[in-house]
Amino acid sequence: MADQHDGNLDGQPGLIRNQNVSAEKLSFARSLRHEMSPVERRLWLKLRSRQICGAKFRRQQIVGPYIADFYCSQAMLTVEVDGDTHNAQYDAARDRYFAQQGIQVLRFTNAEVLRNIDGVIYMIAEALSTRS
Predict the structure, then answer these.
(1) What pLDDT was estimated at residue 80?
(2) How many separate domains does the chain show?
């Protein structure tokens, strides 16, 4: 069942509604949620259940033509984890799109999440406190 979204931020601040999402993209986002990397899973354990500043994050959230790793609609904030394979050109285009929608992007490497999870969480909390 395809979700109907057109990429507009509609109703509640930051909540994506009425986008046209193909069944394939919806299925792909669901598969990403089920097949998270160990690094993404480690960060998700810290983001889930409103543990940081009471903010609700969604995993692998479809936002327009892109899929955000972790998205908080209330703060209009996405947290991206860059793995070993990384396409800087694609990420730049995605970051521009998110910025045009008023969404702030925080980007961390796998190494940052693995070696300094507390620092990553601190930076996310700082961004949430300035955007909420």
Answers:
(1) 96
(2) 1
Per-residue b/e over 43-59, b at no fewer than 16 CB within 10 Å?
bbebbeeeebbebebbb
Q: What's the CATH number where 81 sits? A: 3.40.960.10
- Domain span at 22: 4-131
Residue 18 pLDDT: 66
pTM for the full model? 0.81
Residue 7 predicted with pLDDT over 60? no
The pLDDT value given to residue 97 = 95
| Alpha-carbon gap, residue 83 to 36, rounded angstroms | 11
- Gap between the Cα atoms of 2 and 59, Å rounded: 18
CB burial of residue 36 (10 Å; 0-12, 13-18, 19+): middle
Angle at 37 between CA 36 and CA 43, to 5 degrees: 85
Task: Read off the amino acid at residue 24.
Answer: E
pLDDT tens-place string over residues 55-82: 999 999 999 899 999 999 999 999 999 9
Q: State both tokens at 91.
A: 């990420």
